[in-house]
Amino acid sequence: MAREAIGRHRPRTAPDPGAPILTSEQRRAVALREAFERLGPLYTKVGQMLSTRPDLVSATVISELEKLHDQALVLPFSDMETVLEEEFGRSWRNRFSFIDTQNPLGTASLAQTYRAGLTTGETVVVKIQRPGIQAVMDDDMRMMRRSARIIAKGAPRFDATIGIETMLSVIFDAMRPELDFQVEAHNMDAARPMASTFDRLSVPYAVDATRRVLIQTPAPGKSIRDVDLDDFKDTDRIAIGQDLLAFMYRGYFVENFFHADPHPGNIFIDPDEGATIIDWGMVGRVDRGMSMSLALILICIAENDGLGAAKAWIEMGNPTAWANLTGFVTDISILVPKIAKATLGELNFGTILTEALKSSTKRGIQTSPMVSILGKSFANIDGSIRYLAPEIAVTEVFTRELSGILRHFALGALSEGQAARAALDLIISAGTAPTDSRQILRDLANQKLGIHITALHQRSRIPGARSDESPRLLLLAVAALVYHALRERRR
Fold first, then answer.
1. What's the CA gap between 404 and 424, in Å, rounded?
2. Nearest C-alpha neighbor of 206 from the set 124, 300, 100
3. Is residue 141 classed as helix, strand or coil in its secondary structure?
4. Res 219: pLDDT
5. Measuring CA to CA, which residue among 176, 214, 216 is closest to residue 87?
6. Is 35 helix (H, G, I), strand (E, B) or coil?
7. Alpha helix positions (H), 389-454
8. How many Å apart are CA 389 and CA 396, to the nearest integer?
């Protein structure tokens, strides 16, 4: 019953006689996409992740999986009433002056949403989880984990590069808040202060939340996909798009917390109110090391430095014993000049990560599965903003935000905790390498300190080894200080 309730057995529509004739590969891709949609939300998310992995599936499959929509048959409101009663009690109706039960605002595999009014006079949106969905998701996660272990055991070389179980864990972790609306409400509360620093951005308020019901303020306007550009002044339209990009950059690099699914349906635009970012069920979190590596990659791209971008990517990854680092550097050095100054109208910036990921896997470099979440988020926000302001140059917005990003990295690197860590690293090094430590002290006494980076080729010989983070923190701190000094000199 639960599987039927979320629409796993939707009838197939009859073929359109006027539709173009598909190749056998295209037909298989369509069948795969339809299978993911019928199987439900977890499989839909996995399919969406695969659409960002050209290292795993063909371009034909990717173009089809990009069409994946989390959709399901509309359940009658009487089915959803049971959830409201279980969460709020039999008197749940006393909360509302009305609920538009005939015209759901949205219908997906996990939940349905309705326009409603509270007895206090507020207009709200009510999001109700579909009955039985939690058990279905738990079963699917267990089955996919078992399948991943079988594949990993049967194809160890493939697993060494991809990290199948880890990739699934990242997807599951990103999805779990979608099954607990209290967590989603908490995510909204965390995102709102980030958005409040921008004049044209906002995040809805959670009026009330239980695990399976979320009552929130509505988003003014309409989906960014459906806006009429003639309703906006060009300056306002571009400013909103730039604010959206800057907001996402701060999530990736400063807050280490970001909206993982900013597709057009999750961004509402109003000429007077600006942009509202909704649906905070799927979020991503990255550690400081990955944020810094990703920032360095984008800095190198903005500077048209293919070699630097390749080195930063390798540092972020984990070369296998058979890794071809020279080949990877060549690949990225060819890619970067093509994208360094492209606008959104000319390029989907999210493809940068996926193209680099394709080369990385091909060359035997294991990359954190979080890159797939980041790639999906990048691609979605770029695709969304393209509807509003395709002339925006992504690297220009990143460069504008760079001062704040570097200042954040520098403050972290120069914090008391990092200073203590650096001091302990020096003490430990002094104990194991007294000659080196004496030379460092002499250099300090002479007001000279050379920083030599030689770990890159060594890591290629030691699969799984990770260089220490402290030198990178120090270098970023120095970079921040130099950057600010140059800015002051130009004024």
1. 29
2. 124
3. helix
4. 95
5. 214
6. helix
7. 394-413, 416-432, 434-445
8. 14
Neighbouring C-alpha atoms within 13 Å toward the C-beta of 480: 22
Q: 89 in helix, strand or coil?
A: coil
Angle at 176 between CA 382 and CA 61, to 5 degrees: 50
Which of 43-47, 66-70, 210-214, 329-333 has the weakest average pLDDT?
Answer: 66-70
Strands (E), 53-180: 96-99, 106-107, 111-118, 123-129
Distance between CA atoms of 441 and 448, rounded to whole angstroms?
9
**pLDDT, tens digit, for every residue of 312-326?**
898 888 888 889 999
Q: Is 289 in contact with 409 (CB distance < 8 Å)? A: no
pLDDT tens digits for range 335-370? 888 877 766 566 555 667 777 888 888 899 988 878
Question: How many Å apart are CA 5 and CA 131, to the nearest integer?
Answer: 8
Q: With a threshold of 0.85, does the pTM exceed it?
A: no
pLDDT tens digits, 438-487:
554 455 455 444 444 333 344 444 334 444 444 444 444 444 444 444 44
Nearest alpha-carbon partner for 201 in 278, 134, 140: 278
- With residues binned 3-state (H G I as helix, E B as strand, rest as coil), the percentages for the chain, rounded to 5, are 60, 10, 30
| Whole-angstrom distance, CA of residue 400 vs CA of residue 243 | 11
- Dihedral sign for Cα 471, 472, 476, 479, please: positive
Beta strands in 100-237 (DSSP E): 106-107, 111-118, 123-129, 201-202, 206-209, 213-216, 222-223
Tell me how far apart the alpha carbons of residues 399 and 405 are, in angstroms, rounded to a whole number: 10
Q: Express as a percent the part of the chain with pLDDT over 90.
A: 33
Q: How many residues does the chain have?
A: 491
Question: Where are the strands (E) in 236-330, listed by range?
Answer: 257-259, 267-270, 274-277, 283-285, 318-319
